[in-house]
Specification:
Rossmann fold, 4-stranded antiparallel β-sheet, 12 strands
């Protein structure tokens, strides 16, 4: 087993993974008397695909919401790029370089694919209101640069043919791809994917898996994902953290997790002879 506790490491397929990008230290999150997350610690390394799995109600989405700033834990610390992160609002976390997709698609149905993806560039728009109104100088330059970035992402995800189509008219699988495009438009250091394969057929899952791998490989984007399809998790992930009723019960490579008896009993639903 490779030592992954701080420095970089080599994956099974020979990819070099960098140092720790994010570290969750002893995170506890409560809603009234309900403990959603109980004293969980794990890290995410630069350049890796890190899966968070577990049965329904395990606390996976709550953890993703802590990472993205939607929830604030009562105990524990979030460290990002070597610094302890203070309490932040989601837009401040996004400005740090963390983007996400949602389990339930959150797009503007009346807007075109292009305009939806352009909203992902908001953190890169710095021109003043007056300049934007006149569309001169800095505002014009920003618009051109942001449009070029968005068009490259649209080409990358092979959605050129629908770039002017209102999102509300698209089938489910393409909407999920548009949401991925919008997240990528922010040029995140860390991309959070909340069940990117949910509701997809086999062909759509294969396409999304390919794009996730390509994003990680070609852009070098670090990815943390929640996913219920164990085949997808084992094929895509470099490391997997397993949650059950708010506790961490497993953490390691796909093979290590697959052979962890506590994970087998709690999540996979089978046991050894």
């Amino acid at each position: 087993m490779n030592d992954m506790s701080g420095g970089n490491y080599m994956t099974a397929d020979g990819r070099q993974i960098g140092n720790t990008l994010m570290e969750m230290k002893n995170i506890t999150l409560r809603f009234g008397g309900v403990v959603a997350i109980s004293d969980i610690s794990f890290d995410i390394h630069e350049g890796e695909i890190r899966a968070i799995i577990g049965p329904n109600g395990a606390g996976k989405s709550s953890m993703l919401n802590v990472i993205s700033g939607f929830y604030h834990p009562q105990e524990g610390e979030v460290w990002f790029r070597g610094e302890r992160r203070p309490t932040m609002k989601p837009y401040q976390v996004a400005a740090q370089g963390i983007a996400r997709t949602f389990q339930n698609i959150a797009l503007f149905n009346g807007m075109s694919v292009l305009d939806n993806v352009m909203t992902g560039r908001l953190t890169h728009m710095n021109a003043g209101l007056f300049s934007q109104a006149l569309w001169r100088g800095k505002a014009e330059r920003e618009e051109v640069e942001n449009r070029e970035t968005v068009e490259k992402i649209i080409d990358f995800l092979e959605i050129q043919a629908i770039r002017k189509t209102p999102v509300g008219r698209l089938p489910y699988g393409l909407k999920k791809r548009v949401e991925l495009a919008r997240a990528l438009a922010a040029e995140p250091k860390l991309l959070l994917l909340d069940e990117p394969m949910a509701g997809m057929n086999v062909e759509e899952k294969e396409d999304m898996s390919r794009f996730i791998l390509d994003v990680n490989d070609e852009f070098g984007t670090t990815i943390a994902l929640i996913e219920h399809d164990m085949g997808v998790v084992m094929d895509l992930s470099d490391r997997v953290v397993v949650m059950d009723y708010g506790r961490k019960i497993g953490d390691g490579t796909p093979d290590e997790v697959r052979n962890n008896q506590e994970v087998i009993d709690a999540y996979l639903g089978v046991s050894h002879d």
